[in-house]
């Protein structure tokens, strides 16, 4: 019976994420990741073909973890309640996942791959973007009965752009967002939704 791998993919990705959260993608050399993992570099190359592949996995896993939670709230049977839950889920996710929050809020996808995204990873990134696009479109339809460009822009601002911008400073400082942020984000969301006809 074969022994289970001592350093599986998730453990390696976790170590890479830890290095990136502390020093950014440029600091995440295979040697530093191996040191954080407590393993020889060969253990990493046994699981990942290249540094590019490993860093790409860190980014994709981080985005998917955040986005799946928000999308689940937006899919609630009552879109008005679901939208509010999604807004509150953003600062809560940042508090519960400080390492991932630094990765998501302080860097861009291009920071993770120096020579462009390989096709399989590019396809996964595209699928994530499509998931969010379709989720917002469906949310708008159920909440407003329409998903025109202006409505989508306002909803996208209230649900994503404003919360992420407001939380970036806390991720950079390495501190949890204070409770007042939740109130400010909800107020912003309610004000934005009133522009597209939602009555509270």
What does this 3D model show about the protein?
- There is one protein chain.
- Helix content is 74%, strand content 0%.
- By secondary structure, the chain is mainly alpha-helical.
- It has a domain of 137 residues.
- Helix 1 packs across helix 2, helix 1 crosses helix 4 and helix 4 packs antiparallel against helix 5.
- The longest helix is centred in the middle third of the chain and has 26 residues.
- The mean pLDDT is 94.
Alpha-beta classification: mainly alpha
Tell me the total number of β-strands.
Answer: 0
So what's the overall shape?
elongated
Which radius of gyration do the C-alpha atoms yield?
19 Å
Mean pLDDT over the full residue set: 94
Helical residues, percent: over 70%
Residue stretches low in confidence (pLDDT < 50, at least 5 long) are none
Main beta sheet strand tally, sense and closure: none
* Beta content: under 5%
* Secondary-structure element order, N to C: HHHHHHHHH
Question: What's the helix count?
Answer: 9
Gap between N and C termini: 61 Å
């Amino acid at each position: 019976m074969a022994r289970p791998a001592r350093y599986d993919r998730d453990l390696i990705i976790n170590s890479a994420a830890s290095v990136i959260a502390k020093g950014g993608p440029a600091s995440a050399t295979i040697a530093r990741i191996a040191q954080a993992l407590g393993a020889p570099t060969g253990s990493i190359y046994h699981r990942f073909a290249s540094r590019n592949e490993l860093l790409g996995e860190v980014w994709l896993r981080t985005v998917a973890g955040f986005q799946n939670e928000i999308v689940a709230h937006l899919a609630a049977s009552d879109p008005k309640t679901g939208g509010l839950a999604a807004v509150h889920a953003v600062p809560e996710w940042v508090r519960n996942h400080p390492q991932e929050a630094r990765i998501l809020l302080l860097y861009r996808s291009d920071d993770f791959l120096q020579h462009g995204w390989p096709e399989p990873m590019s396809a996964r990134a595209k699928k994530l973007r499509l998931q969010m696009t379709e989720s917002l479109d469906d949310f708008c339809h159920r909440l407003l009965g329409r998903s025109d460009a202006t409505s989508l822009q306002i909803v996208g601002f209230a649900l994503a752009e404003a919360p992420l911008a407001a939380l970036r400073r806390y991720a950079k400082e390495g501190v949890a967002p204070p409770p007042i942020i939740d109130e400010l984000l909800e107020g912003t969301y309610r004000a934005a939704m009133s522009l597209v006809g939602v009555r509270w």
